[in-house]
Amino acid sequence: MAISKNIGAKRLVVGAHYGFRDWLAQRATAIIMGVYTIILLAVFLGGRNFSYEGWAGLFAHEWFKIATFVTFVALAYHVWVGMRDVWMDYVKPVVLRLLLQVATIAWLIGCAGYAAQILWRI
């Protein structure tokens, strides 16, 4: 009788390997978005100039543009993990699921490009 080596920590796992890595990525992206929100609230509550010039002055700093874009990329990845899970769980026809996933990726890349254009006036 042969003993299977596919049991325990060294078992052979096939498939997409989603799970812990994506769970951890969503937590990391949530932390990035939370830190940015705290920074934005601190700037907002500590500021006196709530006009267009005040906001333009805030976004004139390169560090703030980078922090905003990093937060937006984190948001996009956070959305991708969540939507991919929704599509995989609830859309059973493979072709439709693939179409929705490609549309989601295209939309998120387009939004990231538009965010870069807004931040840096490309």
From TrEMBL:
<keyword id="KW-0812">Transmembrane</keyword>
<keyword id="KW-0349">Heme</keyword>
<feature type="binding site" description="axial binding residue">
    <location>
        <position position="78"/>
    </location>
    <ligand>
        <name>heme</name>
    </ligand>
</feature>
<keyword id="KW-0249">Electron transport</keyword>
<keyword id="KW-0472">Membrane</keyword>
<feature type="binding site">
    <location>
        <position position="90"/>
    </location>
    <ligand>
        <name>a ubiquinone</name>
    </ligand>
</feature>
<keyword id="KW-1133">Transmembrane helix</keyword>
<dbReference type="GO" id="GO:0017004">
    <property type="term" value="P:cytochrome complex assembly"/>
</dbReference>
<dbReference type="GO" id="GO:0046872">
    <property type="term" value="F:metal ion binding"/>
</dbReference>
<keyword id="KW-0813">Transport</keyword>
<keyword id="KW-0479">Metal-binding</keyword>
<comment type="pathway">
    <text>Carbohydrate metabolism; tricarboxylic acid cycle.</text>
</comment>
<dbReference type="GO" id="GO:0006099">
    <property type="term" value="P:tricarboxylic acid cycle"/>
</dbReference>
<dbReference type="GO" id="GO:0009055">
    <property type="term" value="F:electron transfer activity"/>
</dbReference>
<feature type="transmembrane region" description="Helical">
    <location>
        <begin position="63"/>
        <end position="82"/>
    </location>
</feature>
<dbReference type="GO" id="GO:0005886">
    <property type="term" value="C:plasma membrane"/>
</dbReference>
<dbReference type="InterPro" id="IPR034804">
    <property type="entry name" value="SQR/QFR_C/D"/>
</dbReference>
<dbReference type="Pfam" id="PF01127">
    <property type="entry name" value="Sdh_cyt"/>
</dbReference>
<dbReference type="GO" id="GO:0020037">
    <property type="term" value="F:heme binding"/>
</dbReference>
<keyword id="KW-1003">Cell membrane</keyword>
<dbReference type="InterPro" id="IPR014312">
    <property type="entry name" value="Succ_DH_anchor"/>
</dbReference>
<keyword id="KW-0408">Iron</keyword>
<feature type="transmembrane region" description="Helical">
    <location>
        <begin position="94"/>
        <end position="120"/>
    </location>
</feature>
<keyword id="KW-0997">Cell inner membrane</keyword>
<keyword id="KW-0816">Tricarboxylic acid cycle</keyword>
<dbReference type="InterPro" id="IPR000701">
    <property type="entry name" value="SuccDH_FuR_B_TM-su"/>
</dbReference>
<protein>
    <recommendedName>
        <fullName>Succinate dehydrogenase hydrophobic membrane anchor subunit</fullName>
    </recommendedName>
</protein>
<comment type="function">
    <text>Membrane-anchoring subunit of succinate dehydrogenase (SDH).</text>
</comment>
<feature type="transmembrane region" description="Helical">
    <location>
        <begin position="30"/>
        <end position="51"/>
    </location>
</feature>
